[in-house]
Write a structure and sequence with these properties.
This protein is an alpha/beta fold. It is built from ten helices and twelve strands. Helix 7 links the parallel strand 8 and strand 9. Helix 2 crosses helix 3 and helix 5 packs across helix 10.
């Protein structure tokens, strides 16, 4: 039986809300993705947990039995993950940094160097987190702090660092690539490349320009990595919205980048679990803010709005 943390968390939120729309919003999931996770959980444990019809969602007897235990399971798992990283004295000797794909490409190396210089006794572990985890592993307990794009999911304290211009990634032979810039309304109706089983609805809307389109985005290609996304764009299957640093760090054959006109920038933040005031976490946030201010002063990026 392969039950994952995300399955139990999805079950707990839906069992609390008894409404797919509200539960999906709390989890930053589409309703279809939430439904898929619940079906996976029911299949893996061999029990029907919810009765569903067009008007309401209710727990079955099996669902009520599981609900009585799940909060303790989630709390125990989170505490166990945190406790295993603590030394007996209570002082952390390791700090785990979660970084979402294509996030903080300019700032991350400088923050890590600055932190290591001030705290040479602390082992820094950096973990790449796929784009479908908006907390960069913080809420799951696999990261102490994370570099994320706003908006941040519930349960995090997020400190804005930098703003970075959003750009259009286009196939080289796409009609929109003929110009020097792209209007967001023109891009919003194109087929997009997006992550399979995306759990971050807010980021999806932000990075597919939902405010310039009626309804959900057209999905031209489903991807699992940044390389998959660039390949989908380069092959003409889809377009994408990214940040300016991606075009510098990840040039790709057949892909051109164009500025998006009159759109809000993407805002990079450093995030930790809400209320986490451990000294090393606080120190990392402080150093990240200092490095961000230095980058702004150097003109390497734009200040947060």
């Amino acid at each position: 039986m392969d039950v994952e943390f995300r399955h139990l968390r999805a079950f707990h939120v839906l069992a609390t809300e008894l409404n797919f729309t509200r539960a999906a919003a709390r989890l930053h999931l589409s309703q279809q993705a939430l439904s898929n996770q619940i079906k996976q959980l029911e299949t893996r444990i061999g029990a029907t947990l919810f009765q569903r019809n067009s008007r309401q969602v209710t727990l079955t007897d099996a669902g009520r039995t599981l609900l009585a235990r799940v909060p303790d399971i989630l709390d125990t798992l989170g505490a166990a993950i945190a406790d295993t990283r603590d030394t007996e004295s209570g002082q952390r000797t390791e700090l785990i940094i979660g970084i979402r794909v294509a996030t903080g490409l300019d700032i991350t190396p400088r923050v890590l160097r600055a932190f290591a210089a001030d705290y040479p006794h602390v082992a820094l572990t950096v973990g790449k987190v796929e784009f479908d985890d908006p907390s960069a592993g913080v809420l799951a307990g696999t990261s102490d702090v994370g570099l994320i794009w706003l908006p941040a999911p519930d349960g995090l304290d997020a400190t804005p660092l930098l703003a970075e211009e959003r750009i259009a990634l286009l196939p080289a032979d796409h009609p929109l690539a003929a110009g020097t810039s792209v209007l967001p309304a023109d891009l919003a109706v194109q087929p997009f490349a997006w992550w399979i089983d995306n759990r971050d609805l807010a980021s999806r809307d932000f990075m597919t320009l939902a405010e310039y389109r009626d309804g959900p985005p057209l999905i031209g290609a489903e991807v699992t990595t940044l390389e998959d996304l660039l390949a989908a764009v380069g092959s003409g299957q889809a377009v994408a919205v990214s940040v300016a640093s991606v075009s510098r760090f990840f040039p790709w054959s057949g892909v051109v980048a164009r500025p998006l006109l009159d759109v809000a920038p993407a805002v990079l933040a450093v995030a930790c679990r809400a209320g986490d005031d451990r000294p090393l976490v606080t120190a990392f946030v402080r150093i990240a803010r200092k490095v961000a201010a230095e980058l702004v002063a150097e003109g390497a990026t734009i200040e947060t709005p």
